[in-house]
Design goal:
- This protein has a five-stranded mixed β-sheet, with helices on both faces.
- It has seven helices and ten strands.
- The radius of gyration is 34 Å and the shape is elongated.
- Helix content is about 35%, strand content about 20%.
Length: about 300
């Protein structure tokens, strides 16, 4: 019995680890979790330093409004057609802005294939021939030696080098920057409206308090104030006003509250933040721009 147990352990130890075949819906869309992530690497094919460098390059391209680039590295997929898989995957994510400036890069280790797909908005700057050249010159030499990290970084760097200074590099801004600016503008407009509304309320209240009920002129002036009572931090006063036009005497009662008594033990009142990034519990979640893909791109095997 003991010998049989040892044999079973040896069989488990020497048996190859079965890799997962990914379908399109199974590939993690990391951009939805974190707006600064662009590399989906669920099998750990790419090293951490490579993922960080690729994410940095992709964010730079998006931040400058040049292109939205998604990178995926998988051990195995559930089809032999890597192009169709890449096309459907990046289309379902909506990689690219309204101008369809999306670039999808996918590596499938078991198929030994690297594939680019491009949106219509970048095909003029990144045509199929240049995509193929980037793969052959910058990526495949590393892939053939099993160094997927350096190969992928070199490829994404080459993509950025082609896009930098191109017609797409027009000094634009990333969608997130626009959203943050819109949030800031909305915040400023909101406070301006609040200030103006408060001023109007104060002016109207002042006019009402100075309007004589007899002659309807803004001619009431305070003549005297008398304390009527004080109870539990609330003081009641009677103000006497005299109209300088018609001599009408008006008496009004008002209450004042002792703030130190009323707020005893309550602590300061804090106004909550509004909007993303202004103290309102902002999230790092992002998303793509709803772009679509044509048939552009290229694929290579090693």
């Amino acid at each position: 019995m003991k010998r049989l147990f040892i044999i079973l352990l040896l069989l488990v130890a020497i048996s190859p680890i079965q890799s997962r075949e990914y379908s399109i819906k199974d590939v993690p869309n990391v951009q939805l979790e974190n707006r600064y992530r662009f590399t989906s690497n669920p099998d750990g094919i790419l090293e951490d330093w490579a993922v960080a460098q690729i994410d940095s390059i992709c964010y730079d391209l998006r931040h400058r409004g040049i292109a939205q680039t998604a990178v995926v590295a998988l051990r195995e997929i559930d089809t032999d057609d890597v192009f169709e898989f890449a096309y459907e995957l990046f289309s379902s994510w909506g990689v690219g802005s309204k101008s369809n400036s999306g670039i999808g890069v996918i590596l499938v280790e078991e198929a030994r294939e690297i594939r680019f797909v491009t949106g219509y908005g970048v095909e003029g700057v990144l045509p199929d021939a240049i995509c193929k050249r980037i793969q052959n010159q910058y990526m495949l030499p590393y892939f053939r030696n099993g160094d997927y990290s350096r190969g992928m970084v070199a490829g994404v760097q080459a993509i950025r080098a082609v896009l930098n200074g191109s017609e797409l590099d027009a000094g634009g801004n990333d969608d997130y920057v626009d959203e943050d600016e819109e949030a800031l503008v909305a915040m400023v407009v909101f406070f301006i409206i609040v200030i103006i509304a408060s001023m109007i309320i104060v002016i109207l209240a002042d006019r009402k308090s100075r309007t004589c009920p007899t002659c309807k002129q803004l001619s009431l002036q305070k003549d005297s104030t008398r304390l009527l009572s004080r109870n539990f931090g609330a003081s009641t006063y009677e103000d006497t006003f005299i109209c300088t036009k018609c001599g009408t005497i008006v008496k009004r009662k008002r209450q004042d509250y002792n703030s130190s008594h009323n707020n005893r033990g309550g602590g300061p009142i804090i106004m909550g933040g509004m909007g993303r990034g202004f103290g309102g519990g902002s999230s790092f979640g992002g998303g793509w721009g709803g772009g679509s893909f044509g048939g552009g791109g290229a694929g290579s095997r090693w």
